[in-house]
Amino acid sequence: MSKRIIIANWKMNPETKEEAHDRAKLISQASDGLSKTEVVLCPPFPFIETVSQFKSFTLGAQDLSSEVEGAFTGEVSAYELLDMGVKVVLVGHSERRARGDSDDIVAKKLLIAIKSSLRPVLCVGESVRDEAGEYFSFIIKQLEGALDKIPKKNLGKLMIAYEPVWAIGESPTGPATPAQCYEMSVYIRRVLSKMIGTEQAISLSILYGGSVDKKNAQFFLSDGGVQGLLIGRESLTKSFLDLLKQ
């Protein structure tokens, strides 16, 4: 965990490969020379090849198929991603879960990513933060559902992204605080310690994603107990370039 990790998730943006090229070029220029930060760019599938020419950031993907190969229309396999130069892949993002990715599907995707030597970012996060603390059980269920069948020896490159769904989007119910982030990062590491052992749990990077912007990014990094950030819409703005230099 010597470097902080900043992941830009462009989601279904921008509209053209020319825009993707120009935005990626700016991120590449801003990433060049950042010795203490690894920048990961996850563009839409059609633009992966377009942005792959830039080498100052790590190339990532927003998702992968739960199948290795075969007649699965519209799917993109781990090995196809590898062939395009992808190194990192998001697994179980809240928006994919909302569109039908069950815990079983997330587990299959995670296992395929690990077996193919991609570096997976497992996304977990509760929809509601209730006063009774039931959201802790929700996080345990997601972690156990994804990791239960994966050999501990294969989890060395795994990253966990905590993304509270209630804090995500243009109109979140309220932004999470660094204190809430810290509470959950400690809790996630405690759960992982019981599942995969303390040594491995300590070595894994935990990221935060949830309405991160230039103004609050440094607070999450300094006070949130995390080693990096998963950034959505802000990664498409000029402010993201300034955020990288903080």
In short:
With 246 residues, this protein is of the alpha/beta class. It contains 10 helices and 8 strands. It has helices at 17-31, 48-51, 78-83, 94-98, 103-115, 135-147, 178-196, 198-203, 217-223, 239-244; strands at 4-9, 37-42, 58-61, 88-91, 119-124, 159-162, 205-208, 228-231.
Description:
This protein has helices at residues 17-31, 48-51, 78-83, 94-98, 103-115, 135-147, 178-196, 198-203, 217-223, 239-244; strands spanning 4-9, 37-42, 58-61, 88-91, 119-124, 159-162, 205-208, 228-231. The chain is an alpha/beta fold and 246 residues long. An eight-stranded parallel beta barrel has the order 1-2-3-4-5-6-7-8, surrounded by four helices.
Q: How can the largest sheet be summarized?
A: 8 strands, parallel, barrel
Order of helices and strands: EHEHEHEHHEHEHHEHEH
- Proportion of strand residues: 15-25%
In spatial order, strands of the major sheet run: 1-2-3-4-5-6-7-8
Distance between the termini: 18 Å
Shape: globular
Amount of helix: 25-40%
Structural class: alpha/beta
Helix count, per DSSP?
Answer: 10
Itemize the secondary structure elements and their pairings.
Layout: E1 4-9, H1 17-31, E2 37-42, H2 48-51, E3 58-61, H3 78-83, E4 88-91, H4 94-98, H5 103-115, E5 119-124, H6 135-147, E6 159-162, H7 178-196, H8 198-203, E7 205-208, H9 217-223, E8 228-231, H10 239-244
Parallel strand pairs: 1-2, 1-8, 2-3, 3-4, 4-5, 5-6, 6-7, 7-8
